[in-house]
Amino acid sequence: MFKKIITILICITFFYFYPFCFAEEIDNTKKDNKSETESIRLLFEKGLEAYKKQDFKSAIKNFKEVSGKIFGHSPSFYNIGLSCGQLSEYKEALEAFKKVKEYNPYNIVNSKFIADILILNKEYAEGEKEISELINRIPQDAGSHLKLAYLALKKNETGISFEEFTFVHNVDPKDIASRLNLAALSIDNKNINNAKLFLEKVESGDFEDNKLKAFYWALKAFVYETDSQIEKSKESIDMAIKLAPEWEMLKDKGLNILKLQMGLAEYMLESLSYKELLSAEPLEFEQGEVSRRIVSRILKEKEEVSKKAIAPAQPKKGSLNLTGELNQTFEYYNRSPSTSNPINYLNMISNLKLEGKVKDVSVK
């Protein structure tokens, strides 16, 4: 009898105290996880510091370590892409930006950088595909249309080029590059009066790029020569050569404006793409992660729907309550305007609305 009582007491003691021991173990695990997250964050911050000091190799090393510890951490891959781009390591940069696209396909800025890297690597056909995809998502993006115009020029597709430069000019009438190229294409079509109209509002001091400025003076020289103003034509071509002495075509007798323009196209494509990369800012540790969670959930739902091969019914109440997370995303990105692109989220919401997945989400 006594042994039974002892056994019962031991059992009661064990079952009473065991949960507390287990709770302590859980608490220790949480502390370990928190400590590991903090060490990873510090590693990421070191990468940012190195990037800001233009120590891009150290930045890449730190961001790669973080990406190895957190699966699908798009800010790390994004920053690796930027760092490799700064070092002209275009193959590695492209791989990193493609990883970002895999984890966050709605990141428009990242898609622009993929196009930039392809152009800088002279993979023009692939770059054109990427830019065309961008235009499908943001039809009014003048920068993408400008690149398409130059890509068309490289292939001697002057009709498409004229359409694209016209689009850019209509979106931004002050854009000098589109004005000059429209003037040049007008000259090629023997429409000198139209060329004069495009040139008359452009002043030589309006832009900084010497090669573009030299192109302006070459166009002026051609127009003056057509009007039999030989002295002014000679002065203008001398000015063009002075601005871009390396541009041998300027020294040819009898300017071929279209050839000159096609030569300018490659230079401008590289210049635009390089400037876009140089002006970019690295992402913070959590930037883009909120949107990645949303995108992952959407893609998972799409996969489930396609497996069933049934048109999705109205979502169940609470099955895709994105409003809170979307607000959180916008609030976060509004705090970091230099590295954000609200177009990504506007585009994402519009797509979701079309699919009937989001209702009553208003965006200012």
Give the helix/strand layout.
Blueprint: H1 2-52, H2 56-69, H3 74-86, H4 90-103, H5 108-120, H6 124-137, H7 142-154, H8 158-171, H9 176-188, H10 192-200, H11 210-226, H12 230-243, H13 257-278, H14 289-308, H15 323-335, H16 342-354
Explain this structure.
This protein is an all-alpha fold and 364 residues long. Helix content is 73%, strand content 0%. The protein has 16 helices and no strands. Helix 3 (74-86) runs antiparallel to helix 4 (90-103) and helix 11 (210-226) runs antiparallel to helix 13 (257-278). The model is unreliable at 309-347 and 349-364 (pLDDT under 50).
Structural class call reads mainly alpha
Main sheet summary: none
Residue-averaged pLDDT, rounded? Answer: 79
Our estimate of the beta-strand percent is under 5%
Estimated helix fraction:
over 70%
**Low confidence ranges:** 309-347, 349-364
